[in-house]
Structure formats: C-alpha cells, structure tokens
Amino acid sequence: MHERMDKGRGTEDSGRAAIGSSPARRSSTSSSLAGVVILAGLVLAACGAPGSGGTRSDGGGGESDAAAAPLQLRVRWQVYSSGQDLALASQGLLDRASTYSQAVPITAASTKIAPDEIVHALIEHLDGQGVRSQPGAAPAAGQGWSQSIEIEEGGAKRWLGVGASSPVDEQKRFRECWMAFTAVYNQTYQLQTVEEAPDWREQDSVLKRQRQRTKSP
Description:
By secondary structure, the protein is an alpha+beta fold. It has six helices and eight strands; from the N terminus they run βααββαβαβββαβα. α1 packs antiparallel against α4 and α4 runs antiparallel to α5. The longest helix has 20 residues. 36% of the residues are buried. About 18% of the residues have low confidence.
C-alpha cells in the first residue's frame, strides 16, 4: 500500500518533518542571510505562478523565451555523521509530476523539485559565499569531510566540503551555504509517493539530535 507524504515547509514542522533534514531556523547577524530570505520568498512566488518552471527566461519574451533551454541543475547536501542526503533539483532536470507519482522507498524520498530559476539563484548564492569548490562528485562517505554540498549543472559536478580541520572562516562560510540550502528546501513543496509510511517518532528523534549538534559552536 502506497502512502502520500507531504513534504512542504520542511525540516522543523512537528511530526511530519523532512527526512534527515537539519533545522534552518537559527538566528544570524550575517548580511548574507538577507539573500536567503529573498530566495525562500522567490520559491513561494515562483511555485504559485502560472507556467512557472521549465525554462529560463531572458526577459525578452516571444521567441527567445520559447527557445530557452531548460536548466538541468541539482544541489545536494550530505551530512556524513547522520547519513542525511537531501537534494533540490530543477524542473529542467526532473519532471515534478512523474517524479512525485512514482512510489519510492522512504529512504529515497529526499529530493525536491523547484523551478529552474530558483535552483539557479541558489547556486549563484552558494558561489557567492567564497567556499572553495572541487571538481567531480562529492564523496559518498566522509573521507575526512563532515559535510558536503554537490552542485550539478548540465551534467558537470563540483562540490564544497567542510571538516573538523577546515579553517574557522571556511566553516562559517560553509554554514551560510547549508543554511541557504535548507531555507529554499524548506519552502519547496513536495508530495512524494512512498512505499510505506514514515516512522515519525524516529524522525523527531533524529531532528532533536541534529538541533543539539547545530547549537554547538
């Protein structure tokens, strides 16, 4: 029997929390969070706009809009200690209707789909934080890294990583990156078909442990 899992506002809603997600609602005085708020607001506006999603407009209208190619983008955040693996894909990469209608194991239900423009704006925001990126796919296991953010554009992948030995300034910059990701991920609506109902009690326990870790300096 298939269950429908509503994953809308995301990682801190009581009970029905996004799987393995870390809380994004921490206060910060960083000016870069203003961009995060704008990104999160754009998600709500774009997802509700008629015809939003498949292509990127250059603002010119007419034939140029019709000819614009879909953007094949994906941002993936992994936390190796907890096994968290969340992804935000563009509609140019994954079709929302076909993806969400397929029944998948609960462990594979962590990908959300947003309009191309939103994922593109998120990637630009991540690049603006100044964290050094490395070519190729992010490590499947930690290999000395505690977290990674993988960015995929048109099939080409690069990734950002942070570990205990990373400079403090780099850790702060990376923190801004994952906070930006969760702000947009939380605001992206999802209704995924899953093969079995989640264990919400266990998910609550996971979230509580993650909150405790993120409160640590």
